[in-house]
Structures are given as structure tokens and as C-alpha cells.
Specification:
The complex is a heterodimer of chains A (about 120) and B (about 130).
Chain A lengths: L7 E4 L2 E5 L6 H18 L3 E5 L8 H16 L3 E5 L3 H10 L7 E3 L2 H13 L1
Parallel strand pairs in A: 2-3, 3-4, 4-5
Antiparallel strand pairs in A: 1-2
Helix pairs in contact in A: 1-2
Chain B lengths: L2 E6 L2 H18 L3 H22 L2 E10 L2 E10 L7 H4 L13 H8 L2 E7 L3 E9 L2
Antiparallel strand pairs in B: 1-2, 2-3, 3-5, 4-5
Helix pairs in contact in B: 1-2, 2-4
The chains are: A alpha/beta (about 120), B alpha+beta (about 130).
The complex binds adenosine-5'-triphosphate (ATP) and magnesium ion.
Adenosine-5'-triphosphate (ATP) binds next to helix 2 and helix 4 of chain B.
Chain lengths: ~120, ~130
């Protein structure tokens, strides 16, 4: 089984990532590396990760996301998570996982707006 | 009763186990939130088998008891077993790189949680979620 990589787009000074299918462990780790590399290459100041299509989350994926938030922060980029569906929010809390300080928004567009405001302000 | 089983040998089998769990949960009639809880719990147990026991199996099926209907998941391996069960059920305990949210988290996500384990023999974890 070969899974496609998670595509990373660039818009102005932000990276835009939409997770569109269930991530296996290897793809998730690859995604983590790719985001950091891309932040470095493009000097992006913000990263929006849209999770609308995600229908579950486990401690492995949560950890990957949390590390992305922290590592991006060290590289000077702020992360916004968008489209977190109620089942994901509920399972995260019940699992007992707290994500690092991160911007959240209902959808990709408002996430991008909030990130732009944050970066300008 | 109708049950299906996945052997856990590779990372891919973790994906297979949770896909099987999600589809079974849907068939039984669980809503989106419970489907996510069940899928997550299966993912945690299957990954523990892969990480700590190297191989084992996850068996998933519709389950009925005392007039209640639910889903039962049995994660079984012949791995090293767990020496101190109380310890690993504490939030934040992890022997590896993990957050240690796994087993205590699974317990919170499901309605019933049973663990039988013996050092050198293996581990069998049975979890149930009831349709409410
Ligand atoms: N099937 C198993 N066989 C042997 N030991 C196990 C098994 N499952 C869990 N353990 C032990 O129990 C500990 C706690 O497991 P748990 O899933 O709660 O946390 P973790 O796997 O360390 O971290 P996380 O799941 O948050 O990534 C593990 O670190 C491991 O030592
Ligand atoms: Mg675990």
C-alpha cells in the first residue's frame, strides 16, 4: 500500500494544508517532516492545517500535530488548526490530550484570516 | 455472533483494524462521536500491540448482554505482558516516547475495560461500548 503525501500549498506568507484522508503512521511522520522543511524553504510565517475530513484522532496523530505546532513555533511560524469536528474535540479531551497553544477556527478561510490578523497585529 | 479479526504485524494493520472497527460501529448503529471513540480506542490498542508485543490480533464484533447491544473489541497478544497494571493505567505513564494517554484514555472512551496480563505470557484487553 502506498499513500500519497499530504500536499502543502503556499499562499502569500502562509502554508495551507488540508488533511483529506486517514493518515497511517508513516504518512503522518512524513507530513511532519515536510511541513518543517517547507517552512524553512519558504520562510512561511503561518501554517493552516485543516482537519475537516478527519473523523478520528488517536494519541499518535495528536502527538504529531502537537510537535508540528511546537517545532513550527521555534521556526517562527504560527499554526492554526481549522475544521475540528465535534467527535475529534470530544475524543481529544477524553483521551486527556492537550494541544499546545494554537489558534483554532471553524474553517480554513477564517483560520487564514485570523492568522493574517495575528501576523500583522 | 458475527466477529471479524485482524492480525497486527505491521503499521498498516493498525489502519486495517481501525477501519474494520469504524465500519462495524457504523453497522451496529453508533453515531459519529461514538464511532470516533471506538476507532480511537482500537487504534491505541493495536498500536500498543505493534509497539510492545510485535504481533497479536484485534477481534471486533457486535455484542449483546442483559438485553443491551454494543460493540466488543478484544486485543490480544503473546508479548512481554505488563508487570504493573496499576501503573500503566495512570495518566501520563509511558515506557516509550508516548504521551501515556493510551490505556487510561481508552478506558475513558469506552464503557467497559478489562485487562488480563501476565509477564512473559501476553496481554488481553477487552473493551465494550454500549449503544445508548
Ligand atoms: N500489549 C502490551 N504488551 C506489553 N506492554 C504493554 C502493552 N500495552 C501497553 N503496554 C505497556 O503499558 C504502557 C502504557 O501504555 P499506553 O498505551 O497507556 O501508553 P504509551 O503507549 O506508552 O503512550 P501513548 O499510547 O500515549 O503513545 C506502555 O508504555 C507499555 O510499557
Ligand atoms: Mg499506547
Amino acid at each position: 500500500m502506498i499513500q500519497p503525501k499530504v500536499p502543502i500549498l503556499k499562499l502569500k506568507n502562509c502554508l495551507i494544508i488540508s488533511i483529506q484522508w486517514e493518515l497511517d503512521d508513516a504518512t503522518a511522520l512524513q507530513f511532519q517532516q515536510d511541513v518543517l522543511k517547507k517552512i524553512h524553504e519558504t520562510n512561511a510565517r503561518g501554517v493552516v492545517i485543516d482537519l475537516t475530513a478527519l473523523d478520528f484522532i488517536d494519541s499518535f496523530i495528536a502527538r504529531i500535530l502537537d510537535e508540528v505546532i511546537q517545532m513550527a513555533g521555534m521556526m517562527g511560524a504560527k499554526v492554526a488548526l481549522t475544521g475540528i469536528q465535534p467527535p475529534i474535540a470530544i475524543t481529544l479531551v477524553e483521551l486527556g490530550i492537550e494541544l499546545s497553544d494554537v489558534l483554532t477556527a471553524l474553517d480554513l478561510e477564517s483560520g487564514l484570516d485570523r492568522l493574517q490578523q495575528e501576523l500583522e497585529g | 455472533m458475527d466477529v471479524s479479526s485482524v492480525s497486527i504485524l505491521t503499521e498498516w494493520d493498525i489502519v486495517a483494524a481501525r477501519q474494520m472497527g469504524r465500519s462495524e460501529a457504523k453497522t451496529i448503529g453508533f453515531g459519529a462521536v461514538d464511532q470516533a471513540r471506538i476507532t480511537t480506542a482500537i487504534s491505541e490498542l493495536a498500536r500498543n500491540i505493534y509497539l510492545y508485543a510485535e504481533q497479536g490480533s484485534v477481534t471486533i464484533g457486535r455484542f449483546e448482554k442483559d438485553g443491551k447491544v454494543g460493540i466488543r473489541v478484544i486485543a490480544e497478544d503473546q508479548g512481554p505482558g505488563i508487570g504493573d497494571v496499576q501503573l500503566v493505567l495512570q495518566d501520563g505513564y509511558s515506557s516509550s516516547y508516548g504521551l501515556g494517554a493510551g490505556l487510561p484514555g481508552v478506558k475513558r472512551l469506552m464503557d467497559e475495560f478489562d485487562i488480563q496480563t501476565e509477564v512473559g505470557e501476553g496481554t488481553k484487553i477487552t473493551i465494550v461500548k454500549w449503544l445508548s
